[in-house]
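Try this one yourself first.
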């Protein structure tokens, strides 16, 4: 891919995704739960996930010249050391998220529970879309973008570019989320490069995000039902 074409394709993809994030934030549907409580617009929340799936997962498959399956799964089965590291990082992500849930829940306004739209059917729809969204998200960042940047600029510059863009797109989540995206971004890039595929990054990111959101939403749902 020519340098100008390479940069323009990724710049357009990233800019549109950033704009979609901004619109979702403005309309109260960027995150399931933030520091102010549950999302204010469930329709926008689901729509944002679907838009991300299409823009980061479906459309790139037709415009970027990378074999889809091999980019995700790599080549060959990883050795014991790689699997041990992956398992430890995944367990750490689950424990970290679970601990954070306990801390965050005590700081959220329980009086908002009456307006919470959480139901079992909504959560099923949301988490289905969320898993697909995060998978597409990692395929774009730690698959397409990282691989092309490594081929064009080398490993270290590629990781720096990836983490900076990853950090910037977290600007809508607040200072703590921006800072947290730096070590996480480095780990996800390192694991994808080491494994030669993006699937370890998908596993770790899903373990971190889904554990946090599921446990926190379960607490809200339980508290809501207790008021019923």
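Now uncover the answer:
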């Amino acid at each position: 891919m020519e340098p100008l074409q390479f940069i323009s394709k990724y710049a357009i993809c990233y800019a549109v995704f950033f704009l979609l994030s901004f619109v979702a934030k403005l309309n109260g549907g960027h995150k399931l739960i933030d520091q102010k409580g549950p999302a204010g617009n469930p329709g926008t929340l689901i729509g944002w996930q679907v838009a991300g799936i299409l823009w980061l997962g479906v459309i790139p498959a037709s415009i970027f010249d990378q074999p889809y399956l091999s980019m995700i799964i790599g080549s060959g089965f990883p050795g014991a050391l790689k699997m041990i590291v992956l398992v430890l990082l995944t367990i750490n992500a689950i424990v970290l998220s679970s601990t954070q849930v306990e801390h965050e829940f005590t700081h959220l306004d329980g009086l908002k529970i009456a307006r919470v739209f959480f139901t079992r059917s909504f959560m099923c729809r949301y988490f289905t879309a969320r898993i697909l969204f995060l998978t597409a998200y990692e395929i774009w960042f730690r698959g397409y973008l990282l691989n092309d940047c490594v081929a064009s600029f080398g490993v270290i510059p590629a990781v720096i570019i990836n983490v900076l863009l990853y950090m910037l797109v977290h600007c809508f989540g607040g200072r703590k989320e921006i800072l947290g995206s730096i070590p996480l971004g480095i780990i996800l890039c390192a694991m994808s490069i080491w494994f030669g595929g993006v699937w370890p990054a998908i596993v770790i990111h899903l373990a971190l995000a889904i554990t946090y959101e599921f446990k926190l939403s379960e607490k809200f749902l339980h508290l809501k039902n207790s008021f019923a």
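Discussion: The first strand starts at residue 33 and ends at 34. The mean pLDDT is 87.
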